[in-house]
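Changelog note: in this version the structure field was regenerated for every chain. One regenerated record is shown below for reference.
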Amino acid sequence: MLDLRPVGYVIGLLVAILGVAMVLPMLVDLAQGRGHWHIFLQSSVITTLSGGLIAVSCSNGVKEGLTIQQTFLLTTGVWVALPLFGALPLMMGATELRFVDAFFEAMSGLTTTGSTVITGLDDLPRGILLWRGILQWLGGIGIVVVAMVFLPELRVGGMQIFRAEAFDTMGKILPRATQIASQITVIYVFLTFACMLCYVTLGMSFFDATVHAFTTVSTGGFANYDASFATFSGPAEYVASVFMILAVLPFVLYVQLVNGDYRPLLRDSQVRAFLSVVAVLVAIVALVLTQIFPHHWEQALREALFNITSIISGTGYASVDYMSWGPFLISLFFFIGLIGGCAGSTTCSIKIFRYQLLFSSIRVQLQRIRSPHGIFTPRYDGKPVGADVLNSVMVFFVFFIFSLGLFAVALALTGLDFTTSLSGAATAMGNIGPGLGEIIGPAGNFSTLNDTAKWILALAMLVGRLELMAVYVMLTAQFWRA
């Protein structure tokens, strides 16, 4: 029989940590003097006690390691439990959101999607704005640990190719996660602090700089203003672009860099491919924008760099309404969102390494057709790739396209138009943020969608954030009989 106590223990601890984190926005609201601090106090008490009680009640079943079943349940269970409690301040506070809206916002935050149902951000208490930033910051570091520890161990979507990279194999998932998380956390905090300092230097208030540093480094995209990042257009866009790019590079390479080995960062094929793709896309978009902004080449380059980086990284900031840039760029932005960044980072979507493996497999197949008696092997980063990795990647592509179509059809059945349904499914599964069209485009938000559509999108965020198979495997009867 499946023992859920180890899973409950870890989830309980993380819920309790989330409750403690609510103290920070409580102190901010208390200092602001707007009378909303008690909402965070109540939410913190409820969340911390609930998490603590769950952990204590399950503590007698804690073991040194987790089984595969338990790991799958833990990976998905965390991203369901935390939004449930993270939604409390949003329901009880100044926003007074209904449960579906609060859960949508919390899920969007913790999965670093960045889609929002809240309007009037400019007038909200600072505690709520900070809480949205904290949710994304915690979700960002959480997904890095999941991508580097759990998904490779679970052989999800070809992630096993990164198994134990740069770390000693310890044989047990939880102890190894603790070791990796401690090193990642230091690097993650440093990047956040550096980003915040750069924003302050460019004239942002300390509060705005802090919240936007949280949502930049996590590639989340929640902003403090309805105009998103357009409020800070100018040099801040360059800073944001740099830190978004830094956040989508593999964190394992930063760990190696800190330990004195800088060569992997320079030689990694995934990094080179990602930077090359960004450079080409920025050049194309900037060239097109010079026709829209004649005699303003710097603005064209800046808007191209910022918005391309924002979409491909899954951050979802918007500095302009790019829906007015014409059908070519609108279509290009849709497909850019399906690329993603590097594995083992805060980024989202399909990710560069899977495209590299796909193209490598296609090239080998073409070589075999031309030379039937030759021996050709797909390679990644100069190393042969096993059949299990290739099969896992191909299955991921198939399931991603299938899921995208499924969610798009489900959204269309709720009464949404084609553009909103398809782009909504893509932005949720890719954890990108804004969609396309007048409703959920960069100039709109998700508040006007019906409740059914919001639940569908929240599910799509979860499925996309956990690389699809980690969620889908639990729908099979064999999983529960194992």
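Spot check on this record: The chain is about 65% helix and 0% strand. The beta strands are 379-380, 383-384.
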